[in-house]
Amino acid sequence: MSATMLSSYWDWIIPSVIVVVLIIIGIILFLYLTINPNFEIQHVPAEHSPLLLANAIPASDRNTLTSAADGDTRVVAPDRNTLTSAADENTRVVAPGRNTLTATPIDTIVNDGSILVNHAKNVWSIISKNAATADVHTIHGNVLPANITSPLELQCWSSSPVSRSSTLTICSRLGIRILRFEFDLEFLYGGSLNGRGAYLDGITVTPSCTIVAWCYVFNANVEITSVRNVGTSDNPIAAAHVELKYQLKALSRVEGTVSFDVKGDGRVDMLHMK
């Protein structure tokens, strides 16, 4: 091979290698800049209201209990330990420096509508690998009295579910939108037991629109992390803390949570977005 041919060969191959290397570097930089952790969340504003404390007890009455056999019988023991039988409120055992205890009949506990549980699902998936799951419209959570087995045992449910729409948007560092996720928080409220209380059913998050850029994987789960009573023992108001947890993956990963607080009287608060 002559020196002239060898020289022309290197004049061709070296620029080609440089171009290929630059293209590879450009692709890597583009993919690296794809996910921007400073994402944007847009949501429809909901009416905000202060949270109530469930069964709040004044500091002065922290050692005061009521006999379950007689709602008007009160035992005050600020500085001593008092054990009172619900069957015989005159029987008292006193020891200094302790707390106050009350024995409650079993039938009172069974009929107590202020003891709340979630009879349905606690955690479920709504988006798996960019697509809505098959049972997204059938799985839900609820907050009902512990002594019932079905929401059909309650009355006065709201005629239609409460629905709150939100939009989650994630953009890359280049400003390119790589995810638009529209979803609706829905639930039924106002169910009562024997004319008392306001309970929750059909708590769910349903996707209405999911747009994901090519080469990204999006997953989302719903979790009811806690249920509680924000009313009184005589008139319970159910409440549930609902979290939408999502994950967007490519070369890097974005994870976040949107939290809601829903109540049996129809109130909704968006508590947290990250």
What features would you describe in this structure?
With 274 residues, the chain is mainly β. It has 3 domains: 1-32; 35-54 and 114-273, no CATH class; 59-110, no CATH class. Helices cover 13% and strands 46% of the residues. It has helices at 3-32, 106-110, and strands spanning 40-43, 64-66, 74-76, 80-85, 92-96, 100-103, 116-117, 123-128, 131-132, 141-145, 162-171, 177-193, 196-212, 217-229, 238-249, 253-263, 268-273. The strands form 4 sheets. It has a 6-stranded antiparallel sheet with strand order 1-11-12-13-10-7, with no helix packed on it. The protein has a 6-stranded antiparallel sheet with strand order 9-8-14-15-16-17, with no helix packed on it. The chain has a 3-stranded mixed sheet with strand order 5-4-6, with no helix packed on it. A hairpin with a 2-residue loop joins strand 12 and strand 13 (196-212). The longest helix has 30 residues, at 3-32. The chain is rod-shaped and about 100 Å long. The protein starts with a helix and ends with a strand. 22% of the residues are buried. Mean pLDDT is 75; it is low at 43-110. Keywords: Membrane, Transmembrane, Transmembrane helix. The chain crosses the membrane at residues 12-33.
